[in-house]
Amino acid sequence: MSQTPPLERAAIVLAAVVLAIAVIALASGVFAGADSATVSTQSAAGLHFADQGDARLAPGLPHPPYDSTPPTSGPHRFATITGDGTRLRDDQILTAIAAGNVIVFYGTTRPPAALVRLAGPFTPALARTGLAVIFAPRRGVHGLVAIAWTRMLRAASASDPLLSQFIRSRLGIPGR
């Protein structure tokens, strides 16, 4: 039985270390790409999504895939909202929340009365300043879904204290 010379053993150990580092680096890159953009807990700050930018899409260019539904950021065409209580297109949603507004979606045919009281009166001028709470129907919503730029909060009802905290914090209104 022959023994491996010391120089050869050192080369084998070095090659094993280099291979281990390469495997770790590769695995870290692969799994980091599969990491979810959201946090796992919900607070008044809501779920946080990656900022996909606020680029303006030229006419004819397709919308990119957004990382949330409804979208909380991303390229879009400028499209204003002239009233609340109506279905919104993604371009209107993104234009409104890019300005600083909060949108609250509901899944019923009429908005809950408590939501109307919470949202207050809507005016296009207020929405242009980024200080509006806009409510809109959306298929598939159970309870309420509030969104702001890169944020989303799900609430069972308009009386959920996290909903009012979310709205105040996103609009910069001091709370209690």
Fold and architecture overview:
The chain folds into 2 domains: 1-35; 47-171, no CATH class. It is 35% helix and 12% strand. The relative contact order is 0.14. The protein has 176 residues and is α+β, with helices and mostly antiparallel strands. The chain is elongated, with a radius of gyration of 24 Å. The protein is built from 5 helices and 5 strands. A 5-stranded mixed β-sheet has the order 1-5-4-2-3.
Per-chain topology:
Blueprint: H1 6-33, E1 47-48, H2 90-98, E2 102-106, H3 113-119, H4 124-129, E3 133-137, E4 144-148, E5 151-155, H5 161-171
Parallel strand pairs: 2-3
Antiparallel strand pairs: 1-5, 2-4, 4-5
Task: Using brief descriptors, characterize the structure shown.
176 residues; alpha+beta; 5-stranded mixed β-sheet
The strand line-up of the biggest sheet is: 1-5-4-2-3
Class from secondary-structure proportions: alpha+beta
Proportion of residues in β-strands: 5-15%
Low-pLDDT runs of 5+ residues are: 30-41
Q: How do the SSEs run, as a string of H and E?
A: HEHEHHEEEH
Roughly what is the average pLDDT, rounded to an integer? 85
Q: How would you sum up the global shape?
A: elongated
Number of domains: 2
**Main beta sheet strand tally, sense and closure:** 5 strands, mixed
Q: What is the CA-atom radius of gyration, in angstroms?
A: 24 Å
Helix content: 25-40%
Tally of strands: 5
Total number of helices:
5
Span between N and C termini? 81 Å
